[in-house]
Amino acid sequence: MAKSAKGTIRVTLRRGINKCLPSHKACISGLGLRRIGHSVEVLDTPANRGLVRKVSYLLSVEGA
User: Fold this and answer.
1) Of 23, 8, 19, nearest to 55 (Cα)?
2) Neighbouring C-alpha atoms within 13 Å toward the C-beta of 40
3) Which of 2, 11, 34, 52 is 20 to 30 Å apart from 24, CA to CA?
4) What CA–CA distance (Å, rounded) separates 15 from 36?
5) How far apart are the first and last CA of the chain?
6) 3 state DSSP class of 32
7) If you ran DSSP here, which 8-state letter would residue 36 be given?
8) CATH top class, domain 8-62
9) Model confidence over 8-47: pLDDT tens digits?
């Protein structure tokens, strides 16, 4: 596992979002994720942690 920059977390989309609620799809796009297997580094803020917590069943998180 690679080290992430201080104050960031790496989020990876692990499941598809076809049958998800519209609010969950909005959380995924708010995190900047586009397709299964796509990873992004986001700032470790309370707002981003809330997005991650809401759709945690679709994601894997590193550096948390």
Assistant:
1) 23
2) 16
3) 2
4) 6
5) 12
6) coil
7) T
8) alpha beta
9) 999 999 999 999 999 999 999 999 999 999 999 999 999 9
Contacts (Cβ under 8 Å, ≥6 apart) of 34: 13
Q: Where are the domains of the chain?
A: 8-62
Which structure tokens are listed for 26?
């909005």
Question: Which region, left, alpha or beta, applies to residue 17 given φ > 0 means left and ψ of -120 to 50 means alpha?
Answer: alpha
Q: Give the chain's length.
A: 64
Identity of the residue numbered 25: K
The Cα–Cα gap between 34 and 13 comes to 8
Chain position carrying tokens 């989309």: 13
pTM, two decimal places: 0.86
Question: What distance in Å separates the CA atoms of residue 11 and residue 58, rounded to the nearest whole number?
Answer: 10
